User: Which sequence fits this backbone?
């Protein structure tokens, strides 16, 4: 009937109006902010600057765990300071910092009065740095004492106090391809030291070939094939690369460049739920207690896989390098938490999920380290206590896990 046709037409117009309003709102929202994608696969090779509020605080970051992205969202009209120190903005001659404003088209415009700087609105990528904003240099690190080890400190230049903020240090063995330990601080002032502004430019950088060689070994299909051939199996355990200092231990999510430092990688089996839950517990304890925590993290041993007929294989990314191989897949991951006069050592075995092994490949059993005392640590969740996590007195732990620095044991009962 004509009445029903009229009703259908009205409904269609309503639906069209709702769709148009939704699209208009989405477009308006998109134009009402400038998005700086500081961590995304699409912009993997862009070195983003640090973005500061006028009060000297780093701008907050929106994290998307599912998409594995991190981005800063600036509302239209917002004025911020971009900083690449100790390096420079790529498209601005010898400029470490630049004040900019977010325009309505999602672009940034320079607020500089310098005659040599163009002030037209540009895409956010135009304001990238020439090099990463977190730099590392060869330095002195406590307990990184072997001549075979490389000690580094890493940080950035704060544009407000004009000092280098050292936010972490690490010690690694370039010949073996192993990170001995890394050290960071969880605190309201999450830096280890504040040093002169030129600290990161007057000392040498570590050898970049180390990272290149590491990444040449991260072709997992080749590793899986090597496992299948060596152990005479049809399957291999799933592996992936991970970071020692990751989002749990990075003081501000803008400092994503920490994840790209050469020593900050290891190869893990599956997702290691016990390892993730431990870091979640440590961060929750810090947020609740407001205590300053020194965190030491590293690896120990080499993963050994067994085949169905007695075959055995030590797992290295480069089995042909060195005496035994280079870049071992670690047997154990460890963290020492130092809080005032107390330290506790935690260990998680880097084992594959038995279900993924399908009974064809098995992991060698592990020698005991200590009688675990996880039940005595009140801030550990039940999930951690029941996950296979090991909790030890540091001095007892160090008898087996020699990579743990001696400084963690000083005046530090369990």
Assistant:
């Amino acid at each position: 009937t004509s009445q029903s046709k009229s009703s259908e037409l009205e409904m269609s117009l309503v639906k069209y109006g709702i769709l148009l309003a939704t699209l208009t709102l989405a477009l308006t929202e998109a134009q009402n902010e400038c998005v700086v994608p500081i961590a995304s696969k699409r912009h993997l090779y862009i070195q983003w600057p640090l973005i500061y509020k006028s009060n000297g605080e780093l701008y907050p970051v929106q994290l998307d765990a599912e998409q594995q992205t991190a981005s800063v969202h600036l509302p239209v009209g917002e004025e911020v300071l971009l900083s690449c120190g100790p390096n420079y903005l790529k498209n601005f001659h010898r400029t470490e910092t630049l004040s900019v404003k977010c325009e309505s088209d999602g672009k940034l415009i320079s607020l500089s009065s310098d005659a040599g700087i163009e002030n037209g609105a540009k895409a956010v990528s135009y304001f990238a740095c020439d090099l990463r904003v977190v730099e590392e240099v060869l330095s002195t690190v406590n307990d990184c004492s072997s001549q075979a080890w490389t000690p580094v400190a890493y940080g950035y230049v704060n544009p407000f106090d004009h000092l280098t903020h050292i936010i972490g240090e690490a010690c690694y063995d370039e010949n073996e391809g192993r990170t001995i330990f890394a050290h960071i601080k969880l605190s309201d002032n999450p830096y280890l030291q504040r040093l002169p502004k030129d600290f990161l430019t007057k000392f040498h950088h570590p050898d970049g070939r180390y990272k290149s060689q590491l990444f040449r070994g991260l072709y997992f299909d080749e590793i899986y094939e090597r496992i299948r051939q060596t152990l005479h199996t049809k399957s291999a355990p799933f592996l992936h690369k991970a970071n020692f200092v990751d989002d749990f231990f990075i003081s501000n999510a803008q400092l994503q460049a920490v994840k790209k430092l050469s020593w900050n990688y290891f190869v893990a089996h599956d997702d290691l739920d016990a390892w993730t839950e431990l870091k979640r517990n440590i961060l929750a304890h810090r947020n609740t207690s407001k205590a300053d925590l020194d965190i030491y993290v590293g690896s120990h041993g080499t993963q050994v896989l067994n085949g169905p007929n007695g075959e055995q294989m030590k797992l290295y990314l480069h089995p042909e390098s060195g005496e035994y191989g280079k870049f071992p897949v670690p047997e154990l991951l460890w963290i020492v938490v130092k809080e005032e006069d107390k330290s506790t050592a935690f260990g998680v075995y880097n084992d594959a999920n038995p279900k993924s092994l399908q009974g064809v490949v098995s992991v060698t059993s592990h020698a005991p380290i200590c009688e675990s005392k996880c039940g005595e640590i009140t801030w550990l969740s039940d999930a951690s206590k029941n996950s296979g996590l090991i909790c030890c007195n540091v001095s007892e732990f160090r008898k087996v896990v020699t990579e743990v620095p001696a400084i963690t044991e000083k005046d530090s009962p369990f």
Q: What stands out?
A: Residues 226 and 236 are 9 Å apart (CA to CA). The chain is about 20% helix and 30% strand. Residues 2-31 form the longest helix (30 residues). Confidence is low (pLDDT under 50) at residues 20-30.
